[in-house]
Amino acid sequence: MGFERALKKKIALGGVDTEKMARLEAVMAPWKAVAVAYSGGVDSTVLGYLLGHVFGKPVRLCLVKSPFLAVRELTSARSVASALRLPLQILALDLLAVDAVRYNDTNRCYHCKAAVLQAIGERCKRGEVLVDGSHADDAGQDRPGRKALLERDVLSPLALAGWTKADIRRVARIAGVPNWNKPSQSCLATRVPHGTSLCAAILERIEAAEELLYGMGCLQVRVRWQREGALIQLGRQDLWRLNDTERWAHLLRHMARLGFLHVELDSTPLPSN
Question: Is 199 a residue of the active site?
Fold first, then answer.
């Protein structure tokens, strides 16, 4: 308990809204044990950290490993959970075997989220509450996955307590959470336009193309599938890396080997949240 009190004091001294912290503690108070739908991103990481190390709840991070999760993201998620000494359970799920997901229509995100939450929920122990890292800023956004959360009675304690993305990042920074400033990520399936059926070959090519860009030092990367071509999107801090003619030519050669014969660079940077 002394360790938990020290963390609360450290977070409070760092400028975190004590009222929001109290509201979050009140939301979590009745829970005996918690399973967190974990992605490796800062939101679910901070939620797991607060549950386990600040509020002293028995907590388990549940990460679904699927063809939509890049190896880089899986490795990072494992590393973060280990660094924070939070128990991690990895569940294998072939989302490409789910017809409604593979068809990739405008409801794909809902069907995907539903399948992921069902897989985690089926493995929840008796008395364990299933939660996710959604926050107050998500409320005003069109998030199809939100419907799946509501249908399966998955709770979003950060949102219920009024925590914003800024609150989450502030706590993560103060507490020394390794991924406190990690840009928001999305799964590989989001790179493929609706109406194009998903398959392992497409996802693998996209992941390989993104690895080329990470290998060039980029930190925030999206490679959008465009039949035999690709649209590259980068964070503001990365756009300059492709201004060099030789570097761009080098990238084009390697992209062509992956089957991307037409490559464009989007001059509009990705949002940095």
Answer: no
